[in-house]
Amino acid sequence: MLFILGLAAGLDQWIRILKIQSRADFNAVSVWLVLNISILFLMGLCALLFRFVTCINKPKTFVSAIFFITGSSILFYNLVALYVPSLTMSRYLTPYTLLTTVSAFIAVTGIITIIFPKR
């Protein structure tokens, strides 16, 4: 889970740098290529994580709660950052970044494993 979150944050930074470079040389193909490949790669990793948590490993309520709390805390950090502008991570956690998408997926995985435990 932490690997996927870190990878999403790193890819967000790389895409932001590529967007700045593409404005300088008017080449947006590299941005779109990296963005689309990174979305497919991260969603594949999230699907593997979901499969591991729900099917292969018998999910425990504690692990599901950790998934839910981690995903929700990253998502709701945006609400806090709107009212406290001195927070440093607020520009990296905008609603349309890969990190917020992955954290929403992790929170939903936690909710699903809490509501529908494997028997």
A few lines on this structure:
By secondary structure, the chain is mostly helical.
Major β-sheet profile:
none
Number of strands: 0
Q: Helix share of residues?
A: over 70%
- Any idea what the shape is? flat
Determine the structural class based on helices, strands and strand pairing: mainly alpha
**SSE pattern:** HHHH
Unreliable residue stretches: none
Quickly count the domains. Answer: 1
Mean pLDDT: 80
Distance between the terminal alpha carbons, to the nearest Å? 23 Å
Figure out the total of helices.
Answer: 4
Content of β-strand: under 5%
- Specify Rg, calculated over alpha carbons: 16 Å
Description:
The chain is an all-alpha fold and 119 residues long. The protein has one domain (2-115). Helices cover 78% and strands 0% of the residues. The longest helix has 28 residues, at 29-56. The chain is flat, with a radius of gyration of 16 Å.
Descriptors for this entry?
mainly alpha, 119 residues
SSE topology:
Elements: H1 2-25, H2 29-56, H3 61-83, H4 98-115
Helix pairs in contact: 1-2, 1-4, 2-4, 3-4
